[in-house]
Amino acid sequence: MDEAQVVVGAGPIGSAVALQLAEQWVSVRLLTRSGSGPDHPRITRQAVDANDADALIAATADAAVIYNCVNPPYHRWPTDWPPIAANLLAAAHHSGAVLATASNLYGYGPVSQDMTEDLPLAATGSKGKVRAQMWQDALAAHQAGTVIAVEVRGSDYVGAGAQSHLGERAIPPILAGKTVRVLGNPDQLHTFTYTQDMARTLIAAASDSQAWGRAWHAPSNPPRTQREALADVARVAGVAPPKVKSLSPALLKVAGLFNPTIRELAEVQYQFTNRFVMDSGAAQEQFDLAPTPWDQVLADAVRSFGGTPVV
Question: DSSP E strands: which ranges in the chain?
Answer without folding.
Answer: 4-8, 28-32, 43-47, 63-68, 98-103, 148-153, 156-158, 180-182, 189-190, 192-194, 215-217, 224-225, 244-246
